[in-house]
Amino acid sequence: MRVAAILRISAGVLWPYVGAVLACMAVLIGSLKLWKADLHVPLVYTGDQLGVQMWVKGLIDNPWYLHNRFLGFPGQMEMEDYPVSDSFHFLFLKAISLASKDSAFVLNFYFLLTFPLTTLSALMVFRRFQVSYGPGLVGSLLFAFTPYHFFRGIYSCRPIS
Questions:
Q1: What is d(CA 153, CA 118) in angstroms, rounded to the nearest whole number?
Q2: Does a structural domain hold residue 24?
Q3: How many domains does the chain have?
Q4: Is 159 inside a domain boundary?
Q5: What are the two backbone dihedrals, phi and then psi, of residue 77, each rounded to the nearest 5 degrees?
Q6: Which of 82, 100, 136, 157 is the right S-S partner for 131, CB 3.0 to 4.6 Å?
């Protein structure tokens, strides 16, 4: 009996977060016109995105992003001295690459996944500060869809035309 009560309570607590993810996905699909997008083609193919695409491709083809045996002459590309702030993102990209070896899909999926994850984390913080669900949901969606997320996530990401 206790297990059923715990599961019922857990399900009641999770439904608002499921609703937040669904609302986020609706806004994301509508704002970027993802029904027209081919996720196996890079969303952006200019600027810094080319270097990031190289890292992801190297991460898929090699054990880690620091060494790429397919680039560099003589030998291989070594990235130990290049300043990168966080390896957690590369670990997450490596986990996604276990499901798909297509570097464009892995990077696009990672970028699109940041929106619901940002919505969830912001909603958790709002709820922790005892903000009710409605305003917390609106605030978390506004936070997830700030222009900064588009400009820094994928350089000059625009809706698919």
A1: 12
A2: yes
A3: 1
A4: no
A5: -80, 130
A6: 136
